[in-house]
Each structure stands twice: as structure tokens, then as C-alpha cells.
């Protein structure tokens, strides 16, 4: 079998695939072998940890795992080699995400940097910005948060009110962001701010890179209905960032932000769907064990869930193959499909689990009492957490209403919704 030195970041995986027979099979086996050899010892206890609703779990240990991945060349696979990546093909990136999910490996802590900001800087950033920030995303020594949503502008990004004024060699920022995932554990935040006084909607916005330890930045965790606090509100009170830490020109913020959102719905969605498969399989197993599968309505809902997952996968592969009318429309369809499917699975889960799902487990649930990395000590089982956290799936990343407007206006050519 043809092999590849996986620890060598100089290897261009795309070039290697072009000259290696059956490269996909070789690459998939290499990923499986590496995960099998490395998810051992202390890392073995991290399997399945840190997913949505549980991002507080074992964060320091998962950060160590991510850095272990980086040292072995498994971060930023799709980035160009000249920017510290591996030049992996789309097929290889899909394989990696799928094999990673099948191994039940821990949720990554560097998603926003690796999958969103990094590609955005490669596309729109200056050479100086790329040299400053990309290496620290590759080796997972700096983590990023996303400063988009605001109390008065959630999914409506063009409605942001946070302002930034250029004062000599610094941007002075005032305003508030909300639902800022993992800001309390990050060093930097990419912020959409209004830099043209009197502007409105998508005009006059800029994309700024802001250190979260700067004077004038206050971060307050928000407790969710799951009891955990992955999200935060972030206040900027005359907070400052260097004048050269703007991506694109002043006023280019909308263009850069929309470019970043396209990266958000990329190949990692297929890995996400492997996790969905596992949840559904576990739920079907529960239904068979507790007799819920004999209920015709529940059996029908489980079958519809399997069909919905197949549709989701087919759409993702079609989108990645470029068989689309509109990139924005394709991204919105993808978000609608998985957000609604996952929310419905949460509701189905408690129907399958029955009355016990309405009762919280005791505080000394096995495997949780000694979890020193869970300071909030939230005692929910997997189905309760699924029900509660998936209420957010149709909101974060762009609400259902906004996604439908994008499809209607940009794909179907329908009249724009009236706006104030």
C-alpha cells in the first residue's frame, strides 16, 4: 500500500492524491490508523466529549488534544501549503471529517479559527495579517470568537450598531455583541462594526480583529437552559485595536462577513452528519429496547428521520460538487435542513424516552460526580440535553426566517421583504 508521512506538513495532500492510485482509500485508512493509535491513554476518555450543549466539558484536555493533532499535521488540512496547511482535496477533507466523527473523537476547540477566520484571511487578509495570525491557528495557540450578533441584530447582520472610529493608529470600538461562543476562552474576536457614521444596513460596515484582553472589553457568560454557558455577551467600551487589523478596506465588512459565512457551511457538515447518524442510531436502539418502536407514530417519525438524514447528505454532496444555482442559496438550504432536522430529533428523543426524560438524574450520576472539568455540574442525560440545546439550532448561524428570505430573494427572485 502507498503510504504518506502524515507528520510532514510540507506534504501537499492534493498533489499526493493526484499521483497516488486509489488515494482516497489510502488516505481514509491513514486517518483511521492515526486516530486508533492516538485516541488512547488520557485522550481515550475524551471520546464523545464537548459537542453542542457540552462545549464546557474537558476544555483544557480537548485543547491539548487539538494541539496534538496540530503536531501531527491534522489541523487546517484544506489550507494551501504556503499558509501552513496541507493542500488537501475536498474529498480528503470530507474523509477526515467523517472518519473523525466515526471514531467519536472529541469536539474540536478551534473551529472558528480553522474553518472560518483562517480561510477568510487567506482570501481577504494582507500578507502581514496572514503571517501574524495563521501560524497560531494552525498550532492552536490562539483561539477565536465571532463578534457578529447583537441584542438588536441577531441573524440580521446588516442591523449591527456596534461602532468603530479610527483615531490615529487605532480603531476605538463601542457596542455590544451577544451569543458569542466561547469568548471567555478565546484570545481574539473578529468583529463586525459600523465604521461609517450615519450608514445603514450593509453599507459602512468593517471587519476588525480585536484582542479580547484589551482594556474596555468585558465578557459575561450567559447561562442557557441546559445550565451551561458556552455563549457570552461581550461589551466594548472605548476598546481599541490596531488600525491595520481591519480585513479588507473600510466599508468591506459585509463582503468579508458573507465570504466567511460560506466557509462556515463547508465540508465539516458531512462530519457533523456522521454524528447525527450516531444520535439517530442510538435513539432507534433505545426505542427498540424500551418498546417505543412498537408505537406506530414513533416508528413513523423514526423512519422520517432516517429519510431526512439521507436527503441532508445528498444535498451536502451536491453542494460540495458545485451543482448549485447560488452559493448563498445553497448555504441557506443546508442550514435549514440540518437545523430543523436536529431540532425535530430532540423532540423525538423525549417522545422515545418517555416520562423518565422529564426527570433530572440525581446529582451523583455515574461518571459525572468526579468530573472536575465540569464546574457547573449540570446533570442532564444525552436526550434531555439534545432536546434543550437543539432549540437553538434553528436560530444560531442564521435563523430559519433569514435563511428563507435569502432563498426567496437571491435564488427565486421574489420581491424583497419590506424593511424599516
TrEMBL record:
SUPFAM superfamilies: Acyl-CoA dehydrogenase C-terminal domain-like (SSF47203), Acyl-CoA dehydrogenase NM domain-like (SSF56645)
Protein name: Putative acyl-CoA dehydrogenase
Domain Acyl-CoA dehydrogenase/oxidase C-terminal: 251-412
Originating organism: Gordonia malaquae NBRC 108250
Family membership noted in the UniProt record: Belongs to the acyl-CoA dehydrogenase family.
Annotated GO CC locations: plasma membrane
Pfam families in the cross-refs: Acyl-CoA_dh_1 (PF00441), Acyl-CoA_dh_M (PF02770), Acyl-CoA_dh_N (PF02771)
Acyl-CoA dehydrogenase/oxidase N-terminal domain boundaries: 27-139
Upper classification of the organism: Bacteria, Bacillati, Actinomycetota, Actinomycetes, Mycobacteriales
Residue ranges occupied by any Acyl-CoA oxidase/dehydrogenase middle domain in the UniProt entry: 145-238
Cofactors demanded by this protein: FAD
Cited PANTHER family: ACYL-COA DEHYDROGENASE, ACYL-COA DEHYDROGENASE FADE29
Molecular function, one GO term: flavin adenine dinucleotide binding
Keyword line: FAD, Flavoprotein, Oxidoreductase
